[in-house]
Amino acid sequence: MEAAIEQGGLAPGSLLGNEIELAGRLGLSRPTVRQAIQSLVDKGLLVRRRGVGTQVVHSKVKRPLELSSLYDDLETAGQRPATRVLRNTVEPAGAAVAAALGVPEGAEVCLVERLRLTHGEPMARLRNHLPPGLLELDTGRLEATGLYRLLREAGITLHSARQCVGARAATAGEGAELTEPAGAPLLTMERTTYDDTGRAVEFGSHVYRASRYSFEFQLLVRP
Questions:
Q1: Number of helices (H) and strands (E), helices first, in the chain?
Q2: Which residues are within 8 A (CB) of 140 and not within 5 positions of it... i.e. 6 or more apart?
Q3: Using CA atoms, how far apart are residues 193 and 202, in angstroms rounded to an integer?
Q4: pLDDT tens digits for 115-148?
Q5: What is the pLDDT of residues 168-199, one digit of tens each?
Q6: In whole angstroms, how far apart are CA 169 and each of 124, 175, 182, 183, 188?
Q7: Distance between terminal CA atoms of the chain?
Q8: Which residues partner with 83 through β-bridges?
Q9: How many CB atoms lie within 10 A of CB 123?
Q10: What one-character-per-residue DSSP string does 7-68 give?
Q11: What per-residue confidence (pLDDT) applies to 6?
């Protein structure tokens, strides 16, 4: 059942039969089925609703650590991504942004803040700074697709990135936007992305709901 939920075989909102039906269908004992259902409830894949039954909820997004966008990853996973643009403006670069983009402190840079949703549910709050004049940051296009797609459409070849992943507690404002209580755990990511000439084209500072999102690492033994 876990594999079926993760791979989309059991869609969000699907209702499971009762324990007797599932035990007969799977050829398992009722205690085994009960234990399996509780395990999936604990993992956040199922929820028991009074008067409704046991229901599949949206699976947790597992994102591999590679140079890809959240929009593309969600779309590939069949999660129906959507975007709400919160800010699309120009502002003076602070010290951290200036260092990341290689521009003088105080120089004007583009700022885009977005809320990324899947199945209508908030998943992450994204904050991106870009050098001015790099591409047209149309709000309608930003809500229709991912930033990396817009960069590629503008003829920019993304080559590499430097990234830092961390965690912290949600502020009251972040909690309200992400439908989490203040103090809830958030995953954080800062990423500076470079094109094939070595130019910094984007600096992102994002927060993700830890209850709905995780980063996946592959570790190799050094020869």
A1: 8, 10
A2: none
A3: 5
A4: 998 878 898 999 999 999 999 999 999 999 999 9
A5: 999 999 999 999 999 999 999 999 999 999 99
A6: 14, 9, 7, 5, 10
A7: 38
A8: 116
A9: 22
A10: TTSS-TTPBP--HHHHHHHHT--HHHHHHHHHHHHHTTSEEEETTTEEEE-PPPEEEESSS-
A11: 62
Q: Do the beta carbons of residue 126 and residue 116 sit within 8 Å?
A: yes
Q: Nearest-CA neighbor of 5 among 55, 73, 64?
A: 55
Residue type, 50: R
Q: Which of 59, 9, 1 is nearest to 35 (CA)?
A: 1
Q: Report which of residues 105 and 48 the model is more confident about.
A: 105
The structure's pTM equals 0.70
What distance in Å separates the CA atoms of residue 108 and residue 205, rounded to the nearest whole number? Answer: 18
3-state helix, strand, coil in the chain (%, to 5): 25, 35, 35
3-state secondary structure of 69: coil
pLDDT of residue 129: 98
Cα separation, 77 vs 121, in Å, equals: 15
pLDDT greater at residue 72 or residue 135: 135
**Where does the pLDDT of residue 106 fall: very low under 50, low under 70, confident under 90, or very high at 90 and above?**
very high
d(CA 173, CA 171): 5
Burial class (CB in 10 A: 0-12, 13-18, 19+), 25: exposed
Q: Which among 169, 165, 167 has a CA at the least distance from the CA of 189?
A: 165
